[in-house]
Description:
Blueprint lengths: L1 E5 L4 H12 L3 E6 L19 E3 L5 H8 L4 E4 L11 H22 L4 E4 L25 H18 L4 E6 L1 E3 L10 H11 L1 E3 L4 E6 H10 L8 E5 L2 E4 H12 L4 E3 L3 H13 L13 H8 L7 H7 L6 H14 L4
Parallel strand pairs: 1-2, 1-4, 2-3, 4-5, 5-6, 6-10, 7-9, 8-12
Antiparallel strand pairs: 9-11
Amino acid sequence: MRVLISGGTGFIGGWTAKAIADAGHQVRFLVRDPARLTDGAGALGVDTSDYSVGDITDREAVARALKGCDAVVHSAAVVALDPGQAEEMIETNLAGARNVLGQAVDLGLDPIVYVSSNAAIFQRHLAQYHADLPVVGGTDAYGRSKARVEVYARGLQAMGAPVTITYPCMVIGPPAGHQFGEGAQGVEGVLNIGVVPGRKAAWTMIDVRDLGAAHAALLEPGHGPRRYMLGVHHLKLREVADLMRAASGRKVRVVPVPDGLLRGTGRVADRLRRFLPASADQFTEAGMQYYTEFPPADTAPAERDLGLTFRPASETIRATVEGLRTVGRG
Protein backbone atom coordinates (compact mmCIF):
# COMPACT_ATOMS: atom_id res chain seq x y z
CA MET A 1 0.00 0.00 0.00
CA ARG A 2 0.93 3.65 -0.28
CA VAL A 3 0.82 4.98 3.29
CA LEU A 4 0.79 8.66 4.23
CA ILE A 5 2.64 9.50 7.44
CA SER A 6 2.22 12.80 9.24
CA GLY A 7 4.95 13.56 11.75
CA GLY A 8 7.53 11.58 9.79
CA THR A 9 10.31 14.05 10.56
CA GLY A 10 10.12 13.16 14.26
CA PHE A 11 11.27 10.32 16.46
CA ILE A 12 8.16 8.11 16.47
CA GLY A 13 7.22 9.01 12.91
CA GLY A 14 10.70 8.26 11.61
CA TRP A 15 10.88 4.78 13.13
CA THR A 16 7.29 4.09 12.10
CA ALA A 17 8.18 5.03 8.53
CA LYS A 18 11.12 2.63 8.60
CA ALA A 19 8.99 -0.24 9.90
CA ILE A 20 6.33 0.42 7.26
CA ALA A 21 8.89 0.61 4.45
CA ASP A 22 10.62 -2.55 5.71
CA ALA A 23 7.21 -4.30 5.56
CA GLY A 24 7.09 -3.57 1.82
CA HIS A 25 4.80 -0.56 1.73
CA GLN A 26 5.46 2.74 -0.05
CA VAL A 27 5.71 5.70 2.29
CA ARG A 28 4.56 9.22 1.51
CA PHE A 29 5.35 12.00 3.97
CA LEU A 30 3.31 15.09 4.81
CA VAL A 31 5.95 17.64 5.85
CA ARG A 32 6.29 21.37 6.34
CA ASP A 33 10.02 21.32 5.58
CA PRO A 34 11.30 18.47 3.34
CA ALA A 35 14.88 19.14 4.45
CA ARG A 36 14.00 17.77 7.89
CA LEU A 37 13.38 14.31 6.40
CA THR A 38 17.14 13.89 6.05
CA ASP A 39 17.66 13.95 9.82
CA GLY A 40 14.88 11.55 10.69
CA ALA A 41 13.43 8.86 8.48
CA GLY A 42 16.12 9.50 5.87
CA ALA A 43 18.86 8.82 8.41
CA LEU A 44 17.26 5.39 9.01
CA GLY A 45 17.57 4.47 5.34
CA VAL A 46 13.97 5.19 4.35
CA ASP A 47 13.30 6.46 0.83
CA THR A 48 11.97 9.97 1.47
CA SER A 49 11.51 11.03 -2.16
CA ASP A 50 7.70 10.77 -1.99
CA TYR A 51 6.52 13.72 0.07
CA SER A 52 3.87 16.40 0.01
CA VAL A 53 4.56 19.83 1.50
CA GLY A 54 1.96 21.21 3.86
CA ASP A 55 0.76 21.64 7.43
CA ILE A 56 -1.81 19.43 9.15
CA THR A 57 -3.92 22.55 9.75
CA ASP A 58 -4.15 23.20 5.98
CA ARG A 59 -7.12 21.16 4.76
CA GLU A 60 -6.27 21.48 1.07
CA ALA A 61 -2.62 20.53 1.63
CA VAL A 62 -3.71 17.44 3.55
CA ALA A 63 -6.16 16.52 0.76
CA ARG A 64 -3.33 16.70 -1.79
CA ALA A 65 -1.14 14.50 0.39
CA LEU A 66 -3.88 11.89 0.84
CA LYS A 67 -4.58 11.64 -2.91
CA GLY A 68 -3.56 8.22 -4.18
CA CYS A 69 -2.91 6.79 -0.71
CA ASP A 70 -4.45 3.60 0.67
CA ALA A 71 -3.79 4.14 4.37
CA VAL A 72 -2.54 6.80 6.77
CA VAL A 73 -0.64 6.98 10.06
CA HIS A 74 -1.26 10.28 11.83
CA SER A 75 1.47 10.94 14.39
CA ALA A 76 1.97 14.70 14.04
CA ALA A 77 1.11 16.86 17.04
CA VAL A 78 2.17 20.14 18.57
CA VAL A 79 3.64 19.91 22.07
CA ALA A 80 3.93 23.16 24.05
CA LEU A 81 4.72 23.63 27.74
CA ASP A 82 4.03 27.37 27.85
CA PRO A 83 0.54 27.84 29.39
CA GLY A 84 0.08 30.82 27.07
CA GLN A 85 0.20 28.45 24.08
CA ALA A 86 -2.32 25.99 25.48
CA GLU A 87 -5.32 27.03 23.41
CA GLU A 88 -3.22 27.29 20.26
CA MET A 89 -1.94 23.75 20.81
CA ILE A 90 -5.42 22.35 21.46
CA GLU A 91 -6.87 24.04 18.37
CA THR A 92 -3.94 23.00 16.16
CA ASN A 93 -3.99 19.35 17.19
CA LEU A 94 -7.78 19.12 16.82
CA ALA A 95 -7.71 20.81 13.41
CA GLY A 96 -4.97 18.43 12.31
CA ALA A 97 -7.00 15.41 13.36
CA ARG A 98 -10.09 16.65 11.54
CA ASN A 99 -8.09 17.28 8.39
CA VAL A 100 -6.08 14.06 8.39
CA LEU A 101 -8.39 11.52 10.02
CA GLY A 102 -11.65 13.06 8.84
CA GLN A 103 -10.62 13.36 5.21
CA ALA A 104 -9.09 9.87 5.24
CA VAL A 105 -12.48 8.54 6.36
CA ASP A 106 -14.24 10.50 3.62
CA LEU A 107 -11.85 9.08 1.01
CA GLY A 108 -12.40 5.51 2.19
CA LEU A 109 -8.85 4.80 3.34
CA ASP A 110 -8.40 1.63 5.35
CA PRO A 111 -6.76 1.42 7.81
CA ILE A 112 -6.45 4.84 9.42
CA VAL A 113 -4.01 4.79 12.34
CA TYR A 114 -4.05 7.59 14.90
CA VAL A 115 -1.11 7.76 17.32
CA SER A 116 -2.69 9.03 20.52
CA SER A 117 -1.08 9.11 23.98
CA ASN A 118 -1.56 7.69 27.44
CA ALA A 119 -2.14 11.33 28.43
CA ALA A 120 -5.55 11.24 26.71
CA ILE A 121 -6.89 8.63 29.13
CA PHE A 122 -4.77 9.31 32.21
CA GLN A 123 -6.50 9.43 35.54
CA ARG A 124 -5.19 9.05 39.06
CA HIS A 125 -5.15 5.82 41.05
CA LEU A 126 -5.43 3.45 38.09
CA ALA A 127 -4.49 -0.17 38.71
CA GLN A 128 -3.83 -0.72 35.00
CA TYR A 129 -3.92 1.17 31.74
CA HIS A 130 -6.18 -0.38 29.13
CA ALA A 131 -7.39 0.89 25.77
CA ASP A 132 -11.07 1.18 26.72
CA LEU A 133 -10.62 3.64 29.57
CA PRO A 134 -12.80 6.74 29.28
CA VAL A 135 -11.32 9.91 27.84
CA VAL A 136 -10.14 12.12 30.70
CA GLY A 137 -6.88 13.80 29.77
CA GLY A 138 -4.10 14.91 32.06
CA THR A 139 -3.98 18.14 34.00
CA ASP A 140 -1.65 19.77 31.47
CA ALA A 141 -2.54 21.43 28.18
CA TYR A 142 -0.98 18.63 26.16
CA GLY A 143 -3.13 16.06 27.94
CA ARG A 144 -6.22 18.18 27.31
CA SER A 145 -5.35 18.56 23.63
CA LYS A 146 -4.89 14.80 23.22
CA ALA A 147 -8.19 14.23 25.03
CA ARG A 148 -10.01 16.57 22.62
CA VAL A 149 -8.57 14.73 19.63
CA GLU A 150 -9.34 11.41 21.29
CA VAL A 151 -13.02 12.30 21.58
CA TYR A 152 -13.05 13.12 17.87
CA ALA A 153 -11.22 9.91 16.88
CA ARG A 154 -13.50 7.76 19.02
CA GLY A 155 -16.46 9.48 17.43
CA LEU A 156 -15.23 8.30 14.03
CA GLN A 157 -14.86 4.81 15.46
CA ALA A 158 -18.43 4.92 16.79
CA MET A 159 -19.60 5.53 13.24
CA GLY A 160 -17.77 2.40 12.11
CA ALA A 161 -14.79 4.11 10.46
CA PRO A 162 -11.68 1.88 10.26
CA VAL A 163 -9.74 4.06 12.69
CA THR A 164 -7.19 2.34 14.93
CA ILE A 165 -5.92 4.28 17.96
CA THR A 166 -2.62 3.46 19.65
CA TYR A 167 -1.59 4.67 23.11
CA PRO A 168 2.19 4.69 23.40
CA CYS A 169 3.57 5.09 26.89
CA MET A 170 7.13 6.31 27.53
CA VAL A 171 8.81 5.88 24.13
CA ILE A 172 12.59 5.58 24.14
CA GLY A 173 15.24 3.83 22.09
CA PRO A 174 17.83 4.78 19.44
CA PRO A 175 17.44 8.15 17.73
CA ALA A 176 16.05 8.75 14.26
CA GLY A 177 19.05 10.71 13.04
CA HIS A 178 19.36 13.23 15.86
CA GLN A 179 15.68 13.03 16.81
CA PHE A 180 14.65 11.74 20.24
CA GLY A 181 11.27 11.73 21.94
CA GLU A 182 10.43 13.40 25.25
CA GLY A 183 11.13 10.14 27.10
CA ALA A 184 14.85 10.44 26.33
CA GLN A 185 14.96 13.53 28.54
CA GLY A 186 14.20 11.29 31.51
CA VAL A 187 17.08 8.99 30.62
CA GLU A 188 19.34 11.99 30.06
CA GLY A 189 18.38 13.44 33.43
CA VAL A 190 19.31 10.23 35.23
CA LEU A 191 22.64 10.14 33.40
CA ASN A 192 23.41 13.72 34.37
CA ILE A 193 22.61 13.51 38.08
CA GLY A 194 23.03 9.80 38.77
CA VAL A 195 19.79 9.72 40.72
CA VAL A 196 16.35 8.17 40.20
CA PRO A 197 14.00 10.01 42.60
CA GLY A 198 10.75 8.74 44.05
CA ARG A 199 9.18 5.87 45.96
CA LYS A 200 6.25 4.35 44.09
CA ALA A 201 7.10 5.93 40.74
CA ALA A 202 7.75 3.72 37.72
CA TRP A 203 8.62 3.79 34.03
CA THR A 204 6.00 2.22 31.74
CA MET A 205 7.82 2.17 28.42
CA ILE A 206 8.15 0.79 24.91
CA ASP A 207 11.04 0.70 22.45
CA VAL A 208 10.42 3.05 19.52
CA ARG A 209 11.36 0.23 17.13
CA ASP A 210 8.68 -2.00 18.64
CA LEU A 211 6.18 0.85 18.41
CA GLY A 212 7.01 1.26 14.73
CA ALA A 213 6.58 -2.48 14.22
CA ALA A 214 3.15 -2.29 15.87
CA HIS A 215 2.07 0.51 13.54
CA ALA A 216 3.29 -1.47 10.52
CA ALA A 217 1.41 -4.57 11.72
CA LEU A 218 -1.79 -2.53 11.87
CA LEU A 219 -1.69 -1.87 8.12
CA GLU A 220 -4.17 -4.54 7.14
CA PRO A 221 -7.57 -3.41 5.83
CA GLY A 222 -10.87 -4.87 6.89
CA HIS A 223 -10.44 -4.95 10.68
CA GLY A 224 -12.61 -1.94 11.51
CA PRO A 225 -12.12 0.24 14.62
CA ARG A 226 -9.48 -0.93 17.11
CA ARG A 227 -7.59 0.44 20.11
CA TYR A 228 -4.31 -0.76 21.62
CA MET A 229 -2.17 0.14 24.63
CA LEU A 230 1.55 0.09 23.84
CA GLY A 231 3.60 0.27 27.01
CA VAL A 232 5.37 -3.06 27.36
CA HIS A 233 7.63 -2.76 30.40
CA HIS A 234 6.63 -1.46 33.82
CA LEU A 235 9.91 -0.82 35.64
CA LYS A 236 10.12 -0.01 39.31
CA LEU A 237 12.75 2.54 40.24
CA ARG A 238 15.21 -0.08 41.50
CA GLU A 239 15.02 -1.80 38.11
CA VAL A 240 15.52 1.53 36.34
CA ALA A 241 18.63 2.26 38.39
CA ASP A 242 20.07 -1.21 37.78
CA LEU A 243 19.50 -1.02 34.02
CA MET A 244 20.88 2.52 33.81
CA ARG A 245 24.02 1.48 35.68
CA ALA A 246 24.55 -1.48 33.36
CA ALA A 247 23.97 0.61 30.24
CA SER A 248 26.06 3.63 31.20
CA GLY A 249 28.76 2.28 33.51
CA ARG A 250 27.95 5.11 35.91
CA LYS A 251 26.77 5.13 39.49
CA VAL A 252 22.99 5.45 39.60
CA ARG A 253 21.04 5.23 42.83
CA VAL A 254 17.44 5.54 43.94
CA VAL A 255 16.70 8.46 46.26
CA PRO A 256 13.36 7.84 48.02
CA VAL A 257 11.95 11.34 47.65
CA PRO A 258 8.23 11.28 48.59
CA ASP A 259 6.13 11.18 45.45
CA GLY A 260 3.88 13.93 46.81
CA LEU A 261 6.91 16.18 47.20
CA LEU A 262 7.87 15.57 43.56
CA ARG A 263 4.38 16.58 42.44
CA GLY A 264 4.44 19.66 44.66
CA THR A 265 7.85 20.70 43.38
CA GLY A 266 6.57 20.30 39.82
CA ARG A 267 3.71 22.65 40.70
CA VAL A 268 6.18 25.27 41.92
CA ALA A 269 8.32 24.78 38.80
CA ASP A 270 5.29 25.50 36.63
CA ARG A 271 4.95 28.92 38.25
CA LEU A 272 8.66 29.67 37.82
CA ARG A 273 8.95 28.18 34.31
CA ARG A 274 10.31 31.29 32.61
CA PHE A 275 13.23 31.41 35.07
CA LEU A 276 14.22 27.75 34.66
CA PRO A 277 16.62 26.21 32.10
CA ALA A 278 15.31 24.18 29.18
CA SER A 279 16.65 21.02 30.86
CA ALA A 280 13.85 21.40 33.45
CA ASP A 281 11.07 21.38 30.84
CA GLN A 282 9.76 17.97 31.87
CA PHE A 283 9.73 18.85 35.55
CA THR A 284 6.11 19.98 35.69
CA GLU A 285 3.20 19.16 37.95
CA ALA A 286 1.60 17.04 35.21
CA GLY A 287 4.92 15.39 34.36
CA MET A 288 5.49 14.43 37.98
CA GLN A 289 1.92 13.17 38.24
CA TYR A 290 2.45 10.87 35.26
CA TYR A 291 5.81 9.80 36.68
CA THR A 292 4.61 8.99 40.18
CA GLU A 293 1.22 7.48 39.31
CA PHE A 294 1.88 5.58 36.09
CA PRO A 295 0.29 2.10 36.21
CA PRO A 296 1.22 -0.98 34.15
CA ALA A 297 -0.32 -1.15 30.66
CA ASP A 298 -2.37 -4.02 29.28
CA THR A 299 -0.52 -4.91 26.07
CA ALA A 300 -1.92 -8.45 25.80
CA PRO A 301 -4.41 -7.49 23.05
CA ALA A 302 -1.63 -5.99 20.91
CA GLU A 303 0.58 -9.03 21.41
CA ARG A 304 -2.30 -11.37 20.59
CA ASP A 305 -3.77 -9.55 17.60
CA LEU A 306 -0.59 -8.26 16.00
CA GLY A 307 1.74 -11.18 16.71
CA LEU A 308 4.37 -8.95 18.24
CA THR A 309 7.36 -9.82 20.39
CA PHE A 310 8.99 -6.97 22.25
CA ARG A 311 12.64 -6.20 23.02
CA PRO A 312 13.85 -6.54 26.60
CA ALA A 313 14.00 -3.29 28.56
CA SER A 314 17.76 -3.64 28.96
CA GLU A 315 18.26 -3.45 25.18
CA THR A 316 16.02 -0.39 24.89
CA ILE A 317 17.72 1.54 27.68
CA ARG A 318 21.18 0.65 26.38
CA ALA A 319 20.27 1.85 22.89
CA THR A 320 18.92 5.11 24.33
CA VAL A 321 22.05 5.73 26.39
CA GLU A 322 24.33 4.98 23.45
CA GLY A 323 22.25 7.20 21.16
CA LEU A 324 22.38 10.12 23.59
CA ARG A 325 26.14 9.78 23.83
CA THR A 326 26.43 9.71 20.05
CA VAL A 327 24.76 13.12 19.77
CA GLY A 328 26.67 14.56 22.73
CA ARG A 329 23.89 14.36 25.30
CA GLY A 330 25.23 11.58 27.49
